[in-house]
Amino acid sequence: MILRSVSLLALAAALAGSASALAAAKPATVEVTFVREGGRFVRVERVVPKGTRPELHALRELLQGPTKVERAQGLRSAFRPGVRVRSLRRVDDLWRVRFSRSLLGPATARTMDRRFAQMSATLARLGPQRFAAISAEGRLVTTLRIGVRPSPWRAVRGEKGYSYSVRGVQMRLWTLGFLDRAAVTGSLDYETSQALIAFQGWERLGRTGTLTGETQVALFRASAPRPTTRRTGRRIEIHRELGVLLMIEDNEVRRAVHTSTGAYGRTPSGTYRVYRKERLSWSVPFSVWMPYAAYFVGGIATHQYPDVPSYPASHGCVRLPEGEAERVWQFVDVGTPVHVF
After folding, report:
1. Cβ atoms of residues 89 and 147 within 8 Å
2. pLDDT of 70-95, one tens digit each?
3. Cα–Cα distance between 107 and 196 in angstroms, integer?
4. Domain that holds residue 251
5. Which of 19, 58, 221, 250 has the greatest CB tally within 10 Å of its CB?
6. What is the b/e burial string over 249-265, where b = at least 16 CB atoms within 10 angstroms of the residue's CB?
7. Distance of CA 71 to the CA centre of its chain
8. Whether residue 33 is found in the same domain as residue 159
9. Are the CB atoms for 141 and 164 separated by under 8 Å?
10. Which of residues 165, 187, 220 is at a domain's end?
11. At what angle do helices 190-202 and 213-221 cross, to 10 degrees?
């Protein structure tokens, strides 16, 4: 009886081992999204060769297009022959995907919409990332929300003919912390210009407030700003040379804002605290109203001002653009630390 039990156990172990071996031998697969005639998206399975990154193989298969059999079944792709994946990286919540310039080859707006929709749907099956920065030879083209049908493609011609989507640029600025989600409108407006100046200042680029070629490259590569100081709670950091104010909570940057500090170093460096807040403050020395003023040392405050240039220009105060000044004012309380670098 004991021998029979041992034999049954040995048989069960052998069967379990065989099942594990079969499971291990099953090849890895990925799903790629194509378009059926009529516009409906269809996922097809592809086997991943050994030694190949699944996500990279998925995009290569996407660009390769449907097989002959799949085309006979009515499947199509919006990608034209010749588009290549140059690189693909996961960075926290983001895919960074670098394509060849042929991604921007001749195509109607509808075709471009389908290209980005196919990308988004394919990347959605490859990981938990929520966004994808898409570039042509390293210059940002657009930003996708993974698994969400992209907004209509409206191309703006950038430097050297590298097109981009304004909305995609705004999405990237939002994910990096330089713009509010509500400001993602598809229009190159004042808020977007100020966000671009803040980004360019933080990245030590020429502060133009426009999307230069070097800004396209930097937006693709950039990571969100990190604070210089570390402590719990809320605080702000003012980086005079860079022209950027960081709104920080529990060591995470909530927003990065363009600012203009005192000319000739009139805004003193050091660590201070907000000691007074006034929704509308009157400057006696300069006879001017200062909306959303938060004083932190002497008569120096962060406040709204109609002219916030890309260089230090004030008498010592920290000038902020319309909209951003109120946001900073609401963020701080009396006692909030202010670090000036």
Report:
1. no
2. 999 999 999 998 999 999 999 999 99
3. 29
4. 234-340
5. 58
6. eeeebebbbbbbbbeee
7. 35
8. yes
9. yes
10. 165
11. 70
